[in-house]
Amino acid sequence: MSRKGAKLLVDSLTRSAKHFTKSEVECLVKLFDTLVAKASSQFAGAGFDRTVFRDTLYNAFGMTDDVVLDRVFSIFDKDNTGFITVVEWVEGLAVLLRGTLEEKMKYCFAVYDLNGDGYISKEEMFQMLKHSLLIQPANEEPDEGVKDLDYDHDGKLSFTDFEQAVRDENLLLEAFGPCLPDIKSSMSFEQKIFRKVPK
């Protein structure tokens, strides 16, 4: 890419991924280029595949759940090409690392909505929770937890239900499993990637 093309790309990404400064976007683009170099030549420099993405999220944030990692990849891969472009990378990280509560609610809901129908069904909840360390109390039916979040009592969780539950109790943002990096790993990632960025 030409120097002018790179500048235009960084300027554009700084506007679209509004949570990063221009210098931070430049660092993320450099990291992207490094990741693309690790990827197979199948995408001819256009992006990196699911394997590189999963390895990166595992190494940077300790994310290990296969279902969650596949869903996060799908959320980042907005054009459904099977690889992550530089725009998808920077815009996805903007939400993952520095998103507003509203952005993170939409992101987490999309991760948990396994079939993309706009609802989190009981089956999807159980699929997400089956690998979770959360253990149901012996005297509580599994459906009870679902009923607590289902504000309109229709047997499934809409974004509106999820949003209301999270606004009532922020800890419910990742109710069905961790899909956001913890604060410590986010800070470590940012310090490592942005270490040369002027303040």
Automatic annotation (TrEMBL):
Q: Which residues form the EF-hand domain?
A: 64-99, 100-135, 137-172
Entries under SMART domains matching the protein: EFh
Gene3D superfamilies the record matches = EF-hand (1.10.238.10)
Sorted alphabetically, which SUPFAM superfamilies does this protein's record hold? EF-hand
| Entry keywords, A to Z | Calcium, Metal-binding, Repeat
The UniProt entry, under InterPro entries, shows:
EF-hand-dom_pair, EF_Hand_1_Ca_BS, EF_hand_dom, Recoverin
Q: What CDD domains does UniProt report for this protein, alphabetically?
A: EFh
Record's Pfam families? EF-hand_7
Q: Name one GO molecular function term.
A: calcium ion binding
Q: What is the official name of this protein in its record?
A: EF-hand calcium-binding domain-containing protein 1
Q: In which organism is this protein found?
A: Lonchura striata (white-rumped munia)
Gene name tied to this protein? EFCAB1
